[in-house]
Each structure stands twice: as C-alpha cells, then as structure tokens.
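Submission sheet (multi-component)
Chains listed below:
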Amino acid sequence: MSVVIPYNVDPNPETGLYNAKLGVWLFLASEVMLFGALFSTYILLRTAAPAWPTGSDILNVPVAFVNTLVLIASSVTMVMSWASLKLNDFAKYKLYMGITCLCALAFLGIKAYEYGTKFSHGDFPANSTFLGIYFVLTGLHMLHVIGGLIVNGYLWGPGSKMFQTEPDRFANRIEVAGLYWHFVDLVWIFLFPVLYLLPGAGVVAGGGH
Amino acid sequence: MEPATTDSHADAHEEHHEESFWRKYVFSQDHKMIGIQYGLTALVFMLLGFCLMLLMRWQLAYPGKPIPAIGGLFGADNAPGGIMLPEFYNQLGAMHGTIMVFMAVVPLLVGAFGNYVVPLQIGAPDMAFPKLNMASYWCFLPGGLLMASSFFLPGGAARSGWTSYPPLSVLEDGQTVWLFGMILLITSSLLGAVNFLVTIIQMRAPGLTWMRLPFFVWAQLVTSFLLLLAFPPLEAAGVLQLFDRLVDTSFFMPDGLVISGEMEDFRSGGGSPLLWQHLFWFLAHPEVYVLVLPAMGMVGEIIANNTRKPIWGYKSLVYSVVFLGFMSFIVWAHHMFMTGMGTVISAFFQTTTMIISIPSVIILTCLLLSLWGGSIRFNTPMLFALAFLPMFAIGGLTGLPLGLTASDIPLHDTYYVIGHFHYVVAPGTIFAIFAGIYYWYPKVTGRKMSELLGKLHFWPSLLFINGIFFPMLIQGMAGLSRRLYDGGLTYEFAKDVMVWNKMMTWSAFGLAVVQIFFIVNFFMSLKTGEKVGGNPWRATTLEWTDAPSPPIGHGNFPKIPTVFRPAYEYSAPGSDEDFTAQSQPQEA
Amino acid sequence: MKDFLNLPPDWSAHGAPIDNLIALIHWVMLILFVGWGAYYILVLIKFRAGASPKADYHGAKGTISKYVEVAVVVFEVAILVAFAFPLWNERVAELPDENESERIRVVAEQFAWNFHYPGADGEWGRTAPELVDTAANPLGLDRDDPASADDIHTLNNLYLPVDKPIILYLTSKDVIHSLNLPYLRVKQDTIPGQTIPVHFVAKQTGESEVACAQLCGLTHYRMKGFLHIQSQQDYQSWHDERTQAAAAAAAAAGM
Amino acid sequence: MSGHSPEEIRASVKVYMLVFGALAVGTVVTVLASYLDIPIGLAITLALLIAAVKASLVALFFMHLKGEVRTIMWTLMITALFFVVLIAVPLSGYADSLSIQWSSWGLGH
Ligand code: HEA
Ligand code: HEA
Ligand code: CUA
Ligand SMILES: [Cu+2]
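Outcome: structure written.
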C-alpha cells in the first residue's frame, strides 16, 4: 500500500515549498559546506606555501574556457527545459533537456581529455599540493556532473513518461534537478578562475617532482 | 497479524502480496520499520563497542596479563598467548570511540528514536522521503559492517584514535577501511538529516505550531541541522586523507618528514597536519551535541510525563536548544588549545566555549525546575531520565576547566578528558537511551518491559558507571595520560592514582553483568511483557493519543490528527484527568 | 584550598596561577553541584507521587534560577577576563629575552625525544632532513656548518638549569607528539613542519619525567624521557663538559 | 513559486537569455583580466569578484533565488555564515601564531 505524503506535489501553504524543493536546497547547503571545506583547504595550503604556481602555467586555459561555456550553456538549457514544461511544450522540453545532457557529456569528454594530457605529462596529484587540490576539486566536481547527467538522462528518457500522468509532479522534478544542476555550474564558476586563472606567487621550485 | 474484518480481508490479502517479506522487513520504506532496523543494528554495534571497551579495561587493570578465558581467540597478531599487543590496544581504542559515536549512539538517537518517534509525534504519515530513508539505512549498515569487519582484514582496524590525526593516520594500517566506512556513515547521516528537516518543517499536523512541538522534536530538528552542515567538511577531509594514503598527496603532510630515518621524498610536502584537526573538529564538536541534544529531548518528554505537569520554561528550552546548536559550530578549536594557538584565536574560542555552557545550564535548570510541584512517578524510564540530570551535570561542569586554555594545560589528553566526556555520553546519553527504550517500548510492541528487571538494571548500572568514571577524573587530575597501552605503568609521576584501575575495571565488568537484566528484559518482554493499551503512560503527545500501540502499518494514523494544545498539558486546571491530549479540541 | 585536587607537584614559576584557576573553577563547580544536588534530592522526596498525589500545573515560581544563571554568567566572564586571557597571553605571547635564556631545540620522533643544545656559541648548527641517520645523526646535523661543532645532543634526557628562563623550540620529525612535563605545567604538541616555542622557569631542582601526551603510534606509551633540573653550577659544568666533548668529537671527525 | 503563468514564464525566458549572455561575457572578461599586468592582490580580488557576480546571476535567476521564500533564505544565510567561519578560522589560526616558525628544520640562525 502506498502512503500519501503531504506536500509532495503542492506547496505547503505555510512555507510555500513542496517537500523535494526544500529537500534539495538543504542538500545544497550541505554541498556548500563540502566544497567550502575544500576551498578552505586550498586557501590554507596556498597561504602556507612559500610559492604557488600560476594556474595557466600548468593547466590548459583555453580548454577550460570552452568547458566553462559548455557548462553555462547547459545551465541555460536546463532552465529552458523547465520553462518549456511550464508552457506545456513537451517537445521543446525534450529538446532542451537533450541538449543539457549532451553538454554534460561534452564537459566530461573535455575534462577526460584534460586529465589524460595531465597524466601523460606526468602531472599527478602527488607532485604538488596545487595539483593535489586541483585533482580533488575538479574530480569531485566531475562526480557531481556525472550524478547530474544520470538524473537528467533519466528525466529525459524513461522518467519523462510521468509528464503524461502527473505533469505537475514532473515539472517539480525538473525544477529540483535544475537546482542541483545550476549549483554544479555555480561551483565550476568559482573553480575555473581559482584553479586556472589566479596568478601565483614566488618561484615554484623544480619541474614537478 | 491483526484480525482482519471480512470486509477488508480482500484488501489485506492483496497488501500481503504486495508487501513481500523483503519489502516489509528488509527494504522497508516505513519509518517505523526503518527505526527498528536502526535500533537493533545500533544496539548490536553498541554491544560490540562495549566488548572492545572490556578488553581495554582488562589491559589497563592488568597490563601484560593474558586475557582470561577468551585470550586465545584473538590470534597471534593481536594477542599472542592471550597477552594484548600495543597495536591491538590502539585498534580497540580507536574503534571503541568510532563505534560508540558513529555506529551506536547517533544511529540510536537519530536513526532509531528520531525515525520512529518524530513522524508519530508530529502527526505525519511517514517521513517526507521514504525511499531516501531506506537508502540512509542501507548506507549505514554497510558502513558499519565495513568498519566492524576491519578487525578481520589484513592490516587490522584503524589505530590512530577516533580523531585520526595525520601524519600518524596516513602512515598506519587499517585507516583506509576506516575512511571508506566513515564516508558511508556520513552519507547516511546526511540523507537522514535532509529527511528529518523536511519532515519537521513541512509535515506537522494541522494546528501543530512551532511552540506546540514536543521538545524532543525540537531537539531532533536542531540535531539534523548540525549533521547537515557539520558532516560535509569531515567528508571532504576524509577524501583528502584517502588521497594522502592512496596516491601520496600531501594535504596533511608537511615538508621534511622523516619517518623512521627515511625521508618521505615521494611526497611533495607542503601540507598542514592542523588542517585535518580543524576539519575534524568542525564536525566533531557539533557531533558531541548531536550525542546529547536528542537525549535531552527524550529526558524532557519523560520528565514531563512522569511529573504529571508541563515542562517548566518550555520556551527557554526551545531557545536554548536552538542557540546551543548555533554556538556548537564555533567552539571547535577548544580541542586544539595545545597545538600552538595564539592569543586572539584562543581568546575567541575560550569565550565561545564559556558562552555555550550557558544554554546547557538553562536547559538543566528548566528540567530540574520541572520537578517542582510535580507528582513524581518513579518508574524505570523516569529513573534513568532522573539520573541523567546529575550525571550530565558532572560531565558538563568538568567541561569548564577544559574550556580555558590555561587550565587545559595540565588536563589536556589526560583521563580527566575521558572522564568529562564519558560522564556526558555514558551515564548521560546512554542512560537517556535506556530511558527512551523503556518509555517507547510499549509504543513499538504493545507491551511494557518488566519494572522489576528494569530496576535491577538501573540501580547497579548507576553505581558501577560512577565507579568507572569518577576515578578517571581523579586520575586525570594527577596527570595520567589517556591512550596508554600499559595504563601509565611506564611513568612514575602518576603512580599513586594507578591503584584505581582495578576497581574501575571490575566496575566495568559489573556493568556488563547487569546489562544482562536489560537484554533479557528486552527480548523476554516481547512475549511476556504486560499488554497495554494505546496510551499506557497517560501521555499527551500524538504518538500515544492518536495512534494505537503498536501503530497500524504504513501510514501511522487512522486519521491525521489536528492539534489544539501545547505539548505537555498535564494536570491542566479544570480538567478531570491529569492529562489532556494535544489533539483534544479546546472547549468553546 | 587546592590540595583536594591532588595535582602533581608544581616546580614551575608559572604553575601556581594555573593551579589556582583550576581550584577556583572546581570550587564553583562543587558549589553549583551541591546546591543543585540538594535541591534535586529534596524535590524528589517532597514531590514523590505518594506525598504529592496531584501535580501543580504551574510548577515552580520565583526567580532564584534566574539569579543562579546570571551568577554563572558573571563568574564565567570574570574568570575569562581576570585569569584565562592574561594567563595564556603570558604563556604564548611573552617570550623572555633570548639572550638571557637557555634555549634548546626539542625534536620528537617515534618514539624518542631528541634535545639539541646550541652549545657555547649559542647557535644551533644547520639541520636538514636528508642528513638524518637514525643511529649516527638523528638530528640531521650538518657537520660542515661551523656552528654545529659544539652542539650537544641528548637522547631522552633533558637537562635544565634552575631559576633561569628556558625556551624550548618544539618540533617533530614524523608524526604529532606532545611534550608533557607534568611537574612544570608544560604541555605542547610537537608538530612536524612547525617549530613552536615554549617558555618557563623551573624554580626547584630535581629529577622528573618527560612524557608524550599525544597518541603517536605503537610505543606511544613508552615514549618517556628524563628531566634533570640542576643547580646553575651543576648545569654549567654538565654543559661545558658536553660542549667540549662534542667539539673534540667534531675535531676528530674532521681530521 | 511553481504557479507561474505562461506570460510570466515567457518574460523570464527573456531574462534567462540575458543572463546567459552576461555569463558568457563574464567568462571572457575573467580570462582577459587574468592577462592584465596588475598586482596580485588586485588580480585575485578581481577574479573572485567576477566569479561572485556570475554565481549570483545563476543563483538569483536560474535558481530563482530572487523572491525565494524565507525558510530557504534563512537556511542559506546560516550556511554562508558557517562557510565563512570554516574558511576564516584555520586561516587566522595560521596568522595568529606569530612566534611559530613554519618549518621543522634549520632553526639555526
Ligand atoms: C555529549 C557529549 C559532550 C558534551 C555535551 C560536552 C560538553 C562540553 N564540553 Fe566536551 N568533550 C566531549 C563530549 C562532550 N562535551 C568529547 C567526546 C571530548 C573529547 C574528544 C577527544 O579528545 O577524544 C570532549 C572534550 C572537550 C574539550 C577538550 C579537552 C581537551 O582535549 O583538552 C573541551 C574543552 O573546552 C570540552 C568542553 C566542553 C564544554 C565547555 C561543554 C559544555 O557544553 C558543558 C555545559 C554543561 C554544564 C556547564 C552543566 C550545567 C549543569 C548544571 C550547572 C546543573 C547542575 C545540576 C545538577 C547537580 C542536577 N570538551
Ligand atoms: C558515545 C560514545 C561513548 C560511549 C557510550 C562510551 C562508553 C564507555 N567507554 Fe568510551 N570512549 C569514547 C566514546 C564512548 N565511550 C571515545 C570517543 C573514546 C576515545 C577514543 C580514542 O582515544 O580515540 C573512548 C575511550 C575510552 C577509554 C579510554 C581508552 C584510552 O584512552 O586508552 C575508556 C577506558 O576505560 C573507555 C571506557 C568506556 C566505558 C567503561 C564505557 C561504558 O560507559 C559503556 C556503557 C555502555 C553501556 C552501559 C551500554 C550497554 C548496552 C548494551 C550492551 C546493549 C545491549 C544490546 C542489545 C539489547 C542487543 N572509553
Ligand atoms: Cu610520542 Cu606519543
Ligand atoms: Cu568540544
């Protein structure tokens, strides 16, 4: 038997929220603290280090620049897919959500290429605290992209059947998935300048090892 | 099981098909079943943590003497000839702490009591996200089993203390499994925290305004908030430590490390050992309030019920709990006073530490004043709840000298600290858990536990537990260090307080023996316990007044109740009964 | 007033205020606990169901509890401002003049204490991790540095002069340890990658122990050293002797 | 929040497009700014400032934080506060310990 959980679809009049929306915001709050700890690590390691490299000397800025645009684009198509649903245009929804997923795939492909070149150049996390935190931050972010891709892919494909039966609930799902997806984008918006663009300081010793 | 009327028979039959054994008992989405799963699992882990402690206590009282009877079971790697090795002792210490905190007490307080009681108390049919709830248990169980199994894996269990300070933890065996286990346990707690917050914020029954919430629900709300925001940094730190261990990064490893004469030149260096401590204690201080807030909530419920009067100062209690939750995020560095802390930061953390004791004093004061004017029933749950008060007071008060840097110098890392926090978690929280089990047992099973066995459990437990922990304060004051394999035998300066060790250890064994009353009572009462009606304690809150005991299956309430009154309307003027249900309409 | 605490003997110049602070807090704790405890027992007897069959809906009145709470606040503020802050300031921010103090490097390792005295020139020789050799050169001392010639190294034995400011510079080669000198009211973590100064004056000669207070691995429990607080003359002759011996050994090695 | 009328949705689609443009421009600007030859403090501030603006655009418009309900605003504000504390304390702990040298080796003068 199934239990009817209140405010699963319609907002609670007192808070103005349906459950999943509050849930995902709380989850994002915890994500803020997760990445916050890693940013804290970055700042402390950098402050304590006698020298810190300039990101662009080690990392590939043009590639990351393209990736940033890809992720931003996917954020826009995500919000557009939600708007299309609200306008009852299911075909458009499919289109935009499809693009979102393709963008996510593109982002992952580009990231994999970047990792690949790093590894083939012998740039491993153990080489410096800069590379260490670079791999942890971008790696964790990549896991979030993969998670988002799985959810969005489901909502684009098999999950979209729900639109026929419970359109409101489905639109909610898209909104919630969107909140998460925008957050992933938002994290990258900080990662890009912090890792790739910020100028370093001091003379970095050695060529890596 | 319930006799079904012919009318609903077909229905029931269908349900039966739908809810297979697996769906009903294993992969259940019903918060009550999940609560029971959490409870039983965590009790088993608690027993394990308890047994590890007994082994340690044996070694502390009789260093180098073979463990009697079972000494041969641990193998030559751990205890050749039954004599415990230092590496085994260190594993026992680290795992006792980890198991008790993350696998026993938190899952009991939040996973079991929170899950079972909160939706019932707020008049909700279930948690907001039943599937997530199930997922959270199914992260907890493998996490816990992984941790527990680490004793049997090559390399053994973690041995760097539950605090896992690097560089040691990066170098020692067993830590990788610990880290993976922690990541699972943290994930489980985070899922649970989101679920509790949404449930409490969104799904309170009509009329159940914030100031009518049972105090226990408030405590769970704040607790969930602490888990939500404090755990992620430890998760991040755990990932970083895994990197340090598995791919030789240097997040926590500084320049110029020389381990047993060998330079660690495969690492880049440049990391900070203190960074781990910040990230760890950013969680672990809020965590200790996670260990005590729900316990306070339960004690509040039980005291109101058994004094037959409203809790005194409900509002101050609520504000204090919220304030305590907030403050607990900004006191963590009081665990790091001896790491070379400057004057400004230490002044900040000493001040916040003193501030955070104020809401605790207010909470204790309110609970104590609630007794005044009551008509006190001394049943087993009440005895445990009453004992919580002075025991928590000892634990809390001994926190004060630790909270000042100067007085922390002689006390830091001594048995005084061990005594301090065990007073809050063992005769404090564990007693509150016992109180909760005795109190809500009839809710879950429809039967009461035996009062006689309960009292046989309570009185000696109270005696023995003080016999273990009070001497710790004495030993610590004399300077005896914690985490010593030989209990301090190497040193001269604390010789004269070592005499306590035997008495403490025998108290611990005594404590173990009297737990048998509890275990027997717990299982026997399932069959032989006195059958009771829906509301055996004559309580006011919804879980008793509006749901049968045991509650109906998934969905909880025959009809979602509406609330008209504050939580603790006991002995209200003008009422014939000495309690008035929250759901009883006010007369016009 | 503080004997009931049974703290270890105090041989340091700065220990008395710390002990007094601990005693003061414990007296207040005791008063609070006894006060509340007496009330608690009284209430349990007075309001047991047998004696008080009908509960009073309104319960306790009066404002004593408010006063107690305020008193606790006032006490805590006073203790912070009057004792805790100044005491800690004196501990970490007011290092004595280096030229008038005896300065010693303390290098912890699993599971021993290395003490590195600068010798007659008052300067430590250069040390470096790549020079470390467990048996021959545990400090990683650079023998080519002239300043190292007269440096004294002792293992697990800390010699100190009485009545003279002492600054210990604590560090570790491997994991975190903690230097614990219970009789001198000194406890400070030794952290690899950092060198942390600790200062004090011993006001009494005697023999005592150096303990490690931080879990540092297998034999943490046996990471014990010996503390020798000597009269200034005895210390000086010990110091001279060791310096000369060190210099002679260095000269011999140089040949 | 979810009860948007079609007109409102169409209006917000326009906003989304504007925000998209702004984000793209912002990305270009950050990269260009990183080539400016300015003092390091200024460069870091500038890069973080641009990132903050971009992030706020995403949060305010894509995530509809603009006009979001109180519960969420409070949650986020408290989170932001603890986020700051988590970053500030380890850092200021580092700065506060003046007498500490950040090396195990070579205390020799
Ligand atoms: C539930 C757990 C819990 C709780 C509630 C507390 C509460 C407090 N703790 Fe404790 N603490 C721990 C668990 C807990 N602690 C643990 C596990 C450790 C060790 C970790 C490790 O190193 O392994 C630790 C260690 C620890 C330290 C570090 C010590 C060191 O390593 O040197 C400090 C220092 O400030 C501290 C302070 C405090 C303070 C000020 C409180 C305050 O919140 C207490 C406030 C309460 C009161 C002041 C009592 C008030 C009541 C009355 C006055 C009423 C009297 C009533 C009657 C007599 C009936 N604690
Ligand atoms: C919640 C946390 C918690 C709890 C409850 C306990 C409970 C106890 N602990 Fe522990 N302890 C820690 C957390 C906890 N501890 C931590 C964090 C450390 C530090 C580790 C480190 O150094 O890293 C520590 C360390 C520690 C030490 C110091 C070791 C050392 O420094 O070398 C000692 C020594 O005696 C000790 C003893 C005890 C005792 C006697 C109990 C007893 O009070 C136990 C009381 C428990 C019960 C009475 C439960 C009985 C219930 C059952 C058995 C369940 C019944 C089961 C079923 C129905 C199935 N503990
Ligand atoms: Cu060195 Cu403990
Ligand atoms: Cu704490």
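Remark: Chain D touches chain A through 48 residues (CB under 8 Å).
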